[in-house]
Amino acid sequence: MSAGYEGKQVLHEITFEARESAIYVVLGPNGAGKTTLFRTIAGILEPYSGRVLFDGNDLNRSKEARKKINYLSHYNALPEEMTVRHALDFYAKIEGGKTEDAISLLGLEELKDKKVSDLSQGQKKRVSIAKVFLQERDLYLLDEATSNLDPGVSKEIRDILLKLSRERIVLYSSHNLYEARDVGTNLLLVRNGALAYNGKISDLRSKEYRVGFRTATDISKIVDAKPEGGYYVMSFASPEDAGLTLKKLVDNGVIITEMRELDNPLQNLFEGRLSLSAGVLDDRETDGNVG
Asked: Which pairs with CB-CB distance under 8 Å and at least 24 residues apart come from 99-108?
């Protein structure tokens, strides 16, 4: 599928399938084409070529198919002069659903009688998300759902998405690579309007597995570790090797208060410094489809 705006092509022959209920994280730098991809899947933009099918139905041709999806734009498109409750009532009358259930789900009780224009950007984002969850759908398209939200609310949204993804397909874009790794099972990397990677996040691993150990003991006398940012840092070939070192430290009476991976494979994928468990992508760009 290829698509764009006013004759200018943004997406170039994007091809992928999402068959299983899961969260498919859509990543890419600004201007890569993520929002264009979401708008095309949602049926807002008609592809220049190719089709977007959902349950075998063309989303640009079937109104019934479009009723099975819901799209959250990264813009907070809300009626500014309405209260939160009246805005959600307005959308509920159009799309169906129960306003009070959405208010409860997003914890909007204290905001429901305030005008949208009086809300902060983070509060407006929560109302936008509540609008998406007024009615259950089979496919959710969420473009930067947790931007402008504080960490506590972001976690609540992620928990909702994880629950939804047990029975539904969720496409979810984010600039937070650590959040993307925590919430997603599949990854679609969009670069320069093309699909640069399409596969399981679990298949991604860094060339180096860097682990930080937090402890009051100077473990550099026991293992080859260097102090860095409050941790004793070591590099391993695999998580299993890190586990063996942890056992060695514990056997030597060291009390470990924290052990964490310091690098994110998604960041390494962005930088072209990544290898797959079933193939190699070391030190090169991932400009073609990788299955």
From this structure: 99/134, 101/134, 102/130, 102/131, 102/133, 102/134, 103/130, 105/130, 105/133, 105/160, 106/130, 106/133, 106/156, 107/153, 107/156, 108/84
